[in-house]
Backbone:
């Protein structure tokens, strides 16, 4: 029980420690590469979906969504 309580306290402290930190934007070149990767993953997901490879399509779609989140966070300011 002590371990769980200690772990919960550590996670809460870590989670809120960087909450007010300003996120620096990436360079224009890095943002272009991320943007290109989003399109590449979406295109690959579409190809895999049409070939009935649903697991691979979901993998590429998830990768695209993750890159889009990163792009939104560090490039669109």
Residues:
């Amino acid at each position: 029980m002590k371990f769980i309580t200690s772990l919960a306290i550590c996670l809460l402290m870590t989670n809120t420690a960087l909450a007010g930190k300003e996120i620096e934007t990436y360079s224009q070149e890095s943002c272009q590469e991320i943007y290109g990767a989003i399109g590449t993953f979406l295109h690959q997901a579409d190809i895999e979906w049409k070939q009935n490879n649903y697991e691979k399509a979901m993998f590429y779609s998830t990768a695209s969504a993750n890159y889009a989140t990163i792009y939104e966070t560090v490039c669109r300011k």
